[in-house]
User: Fold BnaAnng09140D protein from Brassica napus.
Amino acid sequence: MASKKQIKTAIVSNEQAIPINNLKPVHTAKMVHAKVLHSWKQNIQLGGETMEFVLVDENGHKIHATCKKTYIESKGSLLPVGAWRYIRNFHVRPAGGAYRTTNHAYKIVFNPNTNVTRSNFMNDELYLNLVDFQLILSGTLDEKLLIDVLGQVLDCGDVETIQCSGGNQRKKLEFILRDINDSRIPCCIWGNLTDILHSACNQDDGMVTLLLRFAKLGKFRGELQISNSFDASRMIINPEIPEAEAFKDIDNGDDTTLITFESNEESQEDNNKQVNHPGKRGQRDKWLIFPTKTIQEMVASTHRSYWGIDEWNATSDYRNV
Assistant:
């Protein structure tokens, strides 16, 4: 004889789940069948502690879900990352905020009547929406929406501790992310992820492919930059996915296949040549991510420029904005 829990699961499983992309505020009493892609806790000064989720259905449609502290133990704890669940009796509210994990117009909000039950469905699909680097560099994307990016880590710096407002200290790590077509984007991650990535970059082979899910687009000193949205982002190092296999073909296990860039008296053409420096795989001069301009070109340019001056020399940090 089936237990009450088994019967309850069977009953829920036989109900018709509504596709996530069709969810609207009128569907409070409806049910969704979804996989948990990501979860994290956050504490907002006015809203208090909550548990946040990114859910996806079998068709790849995603929606954000939020659970107040009151229901974390009874409901939020039943939603581990990677699991499929039936969720019913919830509120559907407009999605807002500065940074959104999905482009869905609404989000799921758990309430006292929300019910979470197990599903027998299983798969390893990550439901990625990788964004092309050229599209990112075009500057046309909505910076309010978090994105998925995949690339090879170059020029990984040192972990720095930054003094922030309120006396708080945060760790940061800067690096360059390049795609399979050698397009490159400056990146900066914050918090606990810094030590993890820095350690991976300093392993013997030094070859790191990085998948950053729900990454934030922004600008630093007028230049486009990718960063993590703290715990809302998920970092996977050397992911075992088909899209990452192409980076293995680039490297082929040969230290000389990754280019090391130097900035000195040598010509720009020489900088593009392959240089083999053991222990410095993928290192490149950060100035080289900006275009080289002659004085005449800079005078004639209609773009604004930022200038950096140190005590030894004066250099132009030319950045199109």
Summary: Helices lie at 4-13, 69-72, 133-137, 193-201, 242-251, 268-271, 295-300.
